[in-house]
Fold each of these.
Amino acid sequence: MKHILMGEYDVIVIGGGHAGCEAALSAARMGMSTLMFSMNLEAIAMMPCNPSIGGTGKGHLVREIDALGGEMGRNIDKSFIQVKMLNTAKGPAVHSLRAQADKNRYHIEMKKTLEHTPNLDIRQGEVTDILVEDGKVTGVVTRTHTVYKAKAVILCTGTFLRGKIFIGDSAFMSGPNGLAPSVELAENLKAKGMNMRRFKTGTPARCLGQSLDYSKMIEQRGDEIPVPFSFMDDEIGENKGLCWLSYTNEETHKVIRANFHRSALFGGQIEGIGPRYCPSIEDKVNRFKDKERHQLFVEPEGLETDEMYIQGMSSSLPEDVQRDFYKTIPGLENLRIVRPAYAIEYDCIDPLDLKPSLEYKGLEGLFCAGQFNGSSGYEEAACQGLMAGINAVLKIKGENPFILGRDEAYIGVLIDDLVTKGTNEPYRIMTSRAEYRLLLRQDNADQRLTEKSYKLGLATKERYDRYLKKKEAVEAEMERLKNKSLGAADLKDFLLSRGTTEVEGRTTFMELLKRPQISYADLKEIDDETRPELSYHEITQLEVEIKYEGYIKKQLQQIERYKKLEEKRLDEDLDYESIDGLRLEARQKLSKIRPSSIGQASRISGVSPADINVLMVYLEKKRREKSK
Amino acid sequence: MREDTIAAISTAYGEGGIGVIRVSGDDSKKIISKIFAPELKPNIMTYGHIRDNFKGNVVDEVMVCYFKGPKSYTAEDVVEIQCHGSLVSLRKILELVISNGARLAEPGEFTKRAFLNGRLDLSQAEAVIDLIKAKTDRTFETAMDQLEGGFSRKIKAIRQELVDVLVDLTVNIDYPDEDIEEMTYEKLIAGLGNIQQEVWEFIKTLDTGRIMREGLRISIIGKPNVGKSSLMNALLKENRAIVTAIPGTTRDTIEETLSIGGVPVILTDTAGIRDTDDVIEKIGIEKSKEAFNRSDLVIFIVDLSRELDSEDREIIDVIGDRKVICLMNKSDLEIKLDRDVLRGLMPKAVFIEGSMTEDQGVNDLENAIKDMVYGGQVSQKTGFVVTNVRHGALLKEADQALTDALGAAEMRDPLELLEIDVNHAYESLGLIIGEEVGDDIINEVFRRFCLGK
């Protein structure tokens, strides 16, 4: 078979989903000639499951992607239908932004951005193989026998790889949303020694909005003033649509129970492992027998379509059963389904085979991101794509990889979890996975990450200047609050009106703000014309840093300890077999995972504190031998 | 680089009249100055008293030596306190040092620091690794030792209650949109209050009787009716164990603490280790085996008035190469046992002859125990002193974290702040039983709640 050489690039990205787009954009923006393949250009930045971006933990990821110069935040700001800040009843560290997306608009805006990005080519085509020379990836081969050379390749295959859809007793090879699957690439990757696993996920049915009775459901509005995801956007306009809440009932459960045996899930046809946090409705009914009802949200798929998404009700039951159980739900009695619910199974790798840079350990120059790495979710995929893109560029330039610590970003937590602990199900971020949650807030993502990204050449000058401006504004206001004070008499009425005790003598605004009953907004009442106009995120940052100073200090101390161990680097090719004193289990785990620091080693299950001590002594010994 | 300050008892207990507590790290001088009034000067030994800075009482009369880093064993600031070698004194002082800000040293940590700070020669690196390994194995054994029975069950039960709280917190924080019961501060305060109460109860038991009962573990072993209970009585000089002529009366293990030549000893009288169909006795036999496995020293009793039989031989097999004193009892009766055969079977054992009911040979036995301890033949298998201080420190840490969490709940601080303290308590208790911090909370969240898109 003759291959036709069609082009040479620095970086080639396989896949145009959320991981692929960020990977391609970051590589191109860092000056690399980049080519992004998508099986179908209509599938660029496609959202084959829920029509929303963000949520707890996920919203934090989007802000971090944005702070690093990624696209997801800006893209959703251009295409949202409704925005809501979640968790506002709790503390600011876990406030999370979520937006309902106009799926088609999201796709169009992302495609537009890709099309207009310098150094970036996009191409419709199916990559069927990667080229390897001397353990190093050198390019890709397509279905039409064309060859593209590259210095680095990034795999972002999503659920396409040997994708298989299940609806009732029918099962067929397919990518998501009726798109063609990628089978040959899966086989060729396996032949190159990649260890493949099967994971599973699912999506609910879509129905027409005109067939629903909204009077029987509870309206879900967005926030009064939508807060933008991107640090670069000030105002994004008003909400454009509504969501609806309804509940299943005993009748729904009866229909599902009567048809358990017809589900692909219970029939045993599905071998892949699905995520626990995203169970199908039959799984929910089966596992939580005592629960009388399950909630579901009906959400618009877009502004120019009547399709509605039935969130909370994914299923792999046959279409007649789907129709019957959906119709038992108040408001859905006359629903007309336009796309049935399905479960999908796909190939992915064990992320323990990856370095923290997301480079595959077995082949130099091959990077991986998204569902291929065993994660789940648009946001999880996007942030890995971004990091894989950055690291592919750094690899080509011969520079050190860009690794974010668990103390620096949720992205760091996510990637470290994947490559250090591995995962047995599609991995989803949760704020409780982060040890230093209080410091990894969405309001300070820019402070944590923009400077780093600017140094990498990814964040633009414009973004960097904005970041500096915000930083100065917050610092100046902090200083002002420290100095601004009022006497007890002037404060009396104000304090009583807020249900808090009076003060003696002059008290600074900073002291007042430390009281739980008083917010920054409250202070406006007693403030003067020196009070600046601050943004939502600037205010949050101020409040958090003042109100929770004690906790922040505690976490900073913990981080100090954490960092000490992270700074002790371990060689990639360290021969753990030759280190006396390591227990057998530790030796095996360390040899497999090859941690890049003592800190990472200490998080591997099966490596004890004693093993860590042995490693530290060993390192010191090596160091001294070298300096001799 | 700044290191935290560590402390440990550095002399083996029971081997001398003086005990040494070593403290190393940047804060060591500061910490000691809180409990020791005289000013410390480098390389000068200072006389004075250790005073409990919380209660105000004098704990012990000591000599304190301060080595200013890098001229010290670890190349950090080191303070060594020489106190009386008694268990009580060592423990108390170590506890004080820890409650004033030091952390209990890990096994081999002083030596590790000495090496990492360049004090030890490169050739000693392997030795340091061996030391860490050996000491860790021993500490691990100790941990396992103490984990038998009620202690770990109790810790696990308290931890489970904390898991319940943490799961509620997590699900409330991470799944605000789900149809689940909302966490109220009232519910939290009630739950955490109960848990703290249990931790308090636990700390109380640690502070009193139980600690004082820790000592050298000796188990008494032998077939039924050879005089195990009589030996126990003779040593105790009181009539605690039931002595009767029907084999199998000592149905459970009986534990007693006594002092032999200043060595605190835990004496365990075991039921005969033999096969039986009697359910109650079976339980006793299991306990005997457990007690036997935990002991530092074994006293094996044979009956001189009966011939050596298969049961005795089985026990000799069980003993293997453990440190053993063989007591040949009932020397006042007609002797039918061939002593030479017995000696041949147990070449390493120390042999004592006597009659426990006649009070003959009891002193010899006591001396043999003392000799073995002071002669260094028996060192405590377990680092129980350290281990207990560690448990105490961790329990107190958990208690403090719960106090912080309750305070935060009273102030209506956000849940994710509170969670930091609750999690701290959970982790402290986990360290006691050596449980790895994993994804147990998240797993529990998904097991208990129906969540998802």
Amino acid sequence: MSRVKKAFLKGTLLQFAVLLGLWLLLSGRIDLFHVSAGVFSALLVTLMHVRVNRHLYFDKGIAAGRSLRVVRLARYIPWLLKQIVLSSLQVAYAVLHPRMPINPSLVRFRVRLPNITARVILGNSITLTPGTLTLRIKDDEFLVHSLMEASHAGLIDGSLPRHVARLYGDKSADIVSEVKIFHKARHV
Amino acid sequence: MSGLHVAALVVLAAGSFFLLVGSIGLLRFPDFYSRCHATGKSDTLGVMLLVLGLILVEGFTLNSAKLLLILTFVGLTNPTATHALARAAFQIGLKPRFRRHDSGTSPEEKKED
């Protein structure tokens, strides 16, 4: 059996296990009826999902280097939470300040990430961090709306993208390039 | 009142504070995109803190696990929805408004024209 096929089977089994675990967690009842209904539902959803999974594992563009390190995720999430708290305080300050010291801008940059999932993680992390908002992702080019200068500091020095790349074991220092900051929408 | 309840109260109050700030920002900010910042994000921390406070009250039970699931899904869907809104607005050509609080055209821009 090829390696991709093995990964596909493993992923499908994992999906079934996660779905069943979710069912047990939500129902909270362990008796024959509820558990067998859960097994049936999880199996049904997994079967319905086989075609999507096949796409995920066998399509080259999506499947390339999709080895997310779960251990690194355990370090990434607390780091992201800290960033969220810090920038929430910044935004709260701007909202409550009588003169409202905001200076919106558009930030465009290219970032080298291994696959689509990594880009989704980066895009969502940017949006989740207050003060920055992903407007557009075209291939490896991100367009971000930023509320204040302090908001996009972590983006253009590359620390947030670097953390995402590290999730996939990529430790190279400069993955962000062609940073451009706009204060007019015309030139974007 | 136990220490845990006090902690829960503090966390719940902080969560409410950030939700309130989000609503004030929604009213005060100048254009669609900056308002997206106010609603989409202050809500992230606000809702997270509220759910965290509820978990502290609830303790180590099945309900806490469900609350944790809510936390996860809010964290995943909230930025996705905000991005979808902002992207749709950007695609139909809504221009962000920048500093100098007139309607999108700055003095520099007029000079260039």
